């Protein structure tokens, strides 16, 4: 049973919400409130619609939805020259050399090159020179790789001082933790919590939470965020940035470093909102 599913079922038990485990892996769970069924499938939750989940997974879409509301690193997306013929009408650059030339024209080095729909820091590269940009694109567009993506993102590098994961439910902050790399060792993955010795530090400081809340408030004017994990960074000048949104955040690393009851209580708060909305 995945950590997220286990913690969710503990929350259901605490609230006397009936649930059923529907698969031998124990990673398909149904719970019922009133006459309504809700399903948890691996890391997918019923807390947000499929369309919003797809939007949050797409870094390019997230950029265009929120770039006029909050600070988002300037980005440009590039379709793979090896994409299927049916997508060729969207293809503006016929080969990788043409993409590299466009990036060189519009961005300063160093630069981040990453796949559009990836997670956990896979195929995210900090490129110091044009040769590294080209090799990063070659890796992302490798159709024989399980990490293949047909869209790559070029993104300006932000000089990050600290990075936070912020869990949102119905436009409300439920949890903040820092992805701390203090005394950690870089092992090749740029995602902070994949560094050796990194820590997920639960943030309860009301000043930090208030600052983050003030920063993300304009996002809610653009769209209601039903659920998600916002990666929020603060740079060395004290400026906040939205890096990306995780549609189905995983809490395994968080409970490695913190009391798992924090997440159980968070799920209980979410489930209570479903109970409150049901008139029996």
Overview of the molecule:
By secondary structure, this protein is α+β, with helices and mostly antiparallel strands. It has three domains: 3-43 and 272-277, no CATH class; 50-69 and 159-249, D-amino Acid Aminotransferase, Chain A, domain 1 (2-Layer Sandwich), CATH 3.30.470.20; 75-156, ATP-grasp fold, A domain (Dna Ligase, domain 1, 2-Layer Sandwich). It contains eight helices and twelve strands. The strands form three sheets. Strands 10-9-8-11-12 form a five-stranded antiparallel β-sheet. A hairpin with a 2-residue loop joins strand 2 (28-33) and strand 3. Helix 1 (3-14) crosses helix 8 and helix 4 (96-106) packs across helix 5. It is globular. The model has no long low-confidence stretch (mean pLDDT 94).
What's a quick, concise take on this entry?
The chain is α+β, with helices and mostly antiparallel strands.
Give the helix/strand layout.
Layout: H1 3-14, E1 19-21, E2 28-33, E3 36-41, H2 50-57, H3 59-66, E4 75-79, H4 96-106, E5 111-115, E6 124-127, H5 130-140, E7 151-156, E8 160-169, E9 172-180, E10 199-202, H6 206-222, E11 227-235, E12 240-246, H7 252-257, H8 261-277
Helix pairs in contact: 1-8, 4-5
């Amino acid at each position: 049973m995945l950590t997220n599913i286990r913690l969710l079922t503990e929350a259901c038990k605490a609230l006397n919400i009936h649930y059923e485990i529907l698969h031998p892996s124990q990673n398909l769970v149904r719970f019922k409130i009133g006459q309504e069924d809700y399903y948890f499938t691996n890391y997918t939750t019923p807390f947000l619609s499929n369309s919003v989940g797809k939007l949050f997974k797409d870094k390019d879409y997230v950029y265009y939805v929120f770039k006029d509301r909050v600070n988002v690193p300037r980005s440009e997306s590039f379709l793979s020259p090896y994409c299927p013929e049916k997508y060729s009408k969207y293809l503006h650059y016929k080969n990788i050399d043409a993409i590299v030339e466009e990036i060189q024209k519009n961005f300063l080095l160093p630069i981040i090159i990453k796949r559009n729909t990836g997670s956990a820091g896979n195929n995210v590269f900090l490129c110091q020179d044009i040769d590294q940009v080209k090799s990063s694109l070659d890796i992302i567009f490798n159709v024989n790789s399980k990490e293949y993506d047909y869209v790559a993102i070029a993104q300006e590098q932000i000089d990050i001082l600290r990075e936070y994961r912020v869990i949102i439910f119905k436009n409300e902050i439920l949890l903040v933790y820092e992805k701390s790399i203090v005394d950690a060792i870089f092992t090749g993955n740029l995602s902070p919590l994949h560094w050796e010795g990194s820590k997920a530090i639960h943030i309860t400081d009301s000043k930090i939470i208030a600052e983050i809340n003030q920063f993300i408030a304009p996002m809610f004017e653009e769209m209601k965020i039903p659920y998600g994990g916002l990666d929020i960074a603060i740079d060395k000048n004290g400026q906040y940035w939205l890096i990306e949104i995780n549609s189905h955040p995983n809490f395994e690393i968080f409970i490695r470093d913190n009391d798992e009851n924090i997440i159980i209580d968070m799920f209980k708060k979410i489930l209570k909102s479903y109970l409150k909305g049901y008139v029996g």
